[in-house]
Amino acid sequence: MYLTWLKIHAYPDGVDTQPDTHAPRRRRGPELDDALLEAAWEQLQADGYAAFTIDAVARAVGTSRAVIYRRWPGRAALVLATVRAHAGTVVGNVPDTGSLQRDTLALLHEFAERMRRVGIDVAAGLFSELEEIPEDTRDVVPAAFQQVINKARSRGEIGPATIPDSVLAMPGELIRYSMIVERTAPSDQALEHIAQQLFLPLVHYHASL
User: 26-86 architecture in CATH?
Assistant: First the structure.
């Protein structure tokens, strides 16, 4: 009886004195990581790489810059993690078609398609700040082509000599150039040229030394 009187007279506007059970739940661990990456992806798609900020991601998730910096050292590292979360990575997924030529072309197409998937603006922006991301990340493309070489060598397609790092890095550098300078992913014809006229001849030459 008293509680009813109190609600009517002390709180005439119907203010609810009960705790708010719908208050935002604080996220932690992988759940928070996923929320940050999703907010980052949404901002990249809406505003592009140049306008992307860690402050905006923090506001979208309701957290602080410090929380993000504990996970990623800077903007480029966060974008890279976001891209990997939404477009995947070739690490551990190198093509194995049974032919060095087909593997090379398939891998080149895979890289180009991933760039299209994340958007030319985002890919070009990220490529322009490679010095801001972990060094081992820059080795992903050469490592992927090294796996292609190893498979070809095990099939007896090429000789046992070591392929120089500069040759292994070349396809990735050419794709990067296309993204930054030409603002487009390489065409099928350009990828064919990289494989047939540049990369594979150098691989065969060095493998036979």
Answer: Orthogonal Bundle (1.10)
Contacts of 20 (CB under 8 A, 6+ apart): none
**What CATH class does 88-207 carry?**
mainly alpha
Residue with tokens 């099928």: 188
d(CA 77, CA 192): 31
What is the Cβ-side half-sphere exposure of residue 79, based on CA atoms within 13 angstroms? 28
Predicted TM-score (pTM) of the model is: 0.76
d(CA 161, CA 203): 10
Return the CA Rg of the chain.
Answer: 25
Structure-token pair, residue 204: 């065969």
Classified as helix, coil or strand, 135 is: helix
Q: What is the pLDDT of residues 167-196, one digit of tens each?
A: 999 998 998 888 888 888 889 999 999 999
